[in-house]
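Moderator note: this is an archived Q&A kept for reference. The question asked for a predicted structure of one protein chain; the sequence and the answer are reproduced below.
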Amino acid sequence: MRALGWCTVRKSPFLARALTSMTNGFQSLADMSEGHLPIHVNNVRSRLRAIVGASTNWSDHVQAMHERKDLHILLAGKQEDLPPRKMKDSYIEVALPLGSQPELREKYLNVHNSVRFGRILEDLDSLGVLICYIHTKHEASQRSPLSIVTALVDKIDLCKKVIYPDCDIKFTGNVSWVGKTSMEVKMHMLQAGLHDGAYSPVLDATFVMVARDPENKRPAFVNPLIPEGTEEEEIFKKGELNKTRRVDFNTASLLKMAPTAEERTIVHNIFLNTLDTRTVSFRSRVLPPNSVWMEDAKLKGLEICHPQERNIFNRIFGGFLMRKAFELGWATACSYGGSRPFVVAVDDIMFRRPVEIGSLLLLSAQNPCCI
């Protein structure tokens, strides 16, 4: 199963939040939108299937994947063999017309009469993959030799508490940084105003995608990215810093390094504060006032992974996994807090390995702390 990180949810009193980075992101990419017509959100998956040669018929998937083996000859031996691309080359706009096409709303509507954030995660995941295929477009073939998959969600910041289900939505995005076999994608979501129709920012997302060979077994090189102008150079440098931060974070993982002195002190203080002084035993603990045991702030769920939720490579769609994880996290926060929570940020969703069709997917969530 894919291991998923955690979504930060807070109750409404903590929703005041400045988000200057989003506004800056839209300004720097404003000139990219010239001459681009948005594609419909329902066409994103269709375009992805055409790019990799995936069949819409589940029974044909084995043959379709077998035919991809012949695309190995199109892979580059080194990155320098591939033509460099610019940020504007991968820029795309996608329309989700919830206002002008009411028949789309039911899929996105939640019980609170707002848009389901889990559905937005699915759309962002598909869009991020499509952006990377546009960046790595192979001029000699309609079908791409690359298998591009989502490695992680680095960050999603929201600047709106509620996403309205009866106003049009627009997604924009482009590749913002490139390594040898990986790509960082910046995506933005805007929603039209209820009265004036003017689009305003809703969220800013950063995804990291990796390219692999046609059989999704080994890494594959991707086109280098050439930033143009000062703003794009700053965006590219931020991508380098993001990579360094992720490497440092992984290096400092508890799976690789012992807790720091400060962390050991915190854990020891928690232990002392919950110790029963009458017995002085590990098995006898006392709950401090206004507290809840972490064990009592957990929820679990189980999903049967049906073919309906497959991606273009006939594994379970990463967006579906994120949606189910988020919805369980939301339910856990709601159960713990006793009121409706609102998501303000998503951090560090890591995809460690694919989920096969037919798997039993066990999901677990818990509140690690209260803000």
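Archived answer notes: The longest strand covers residues 199-212.
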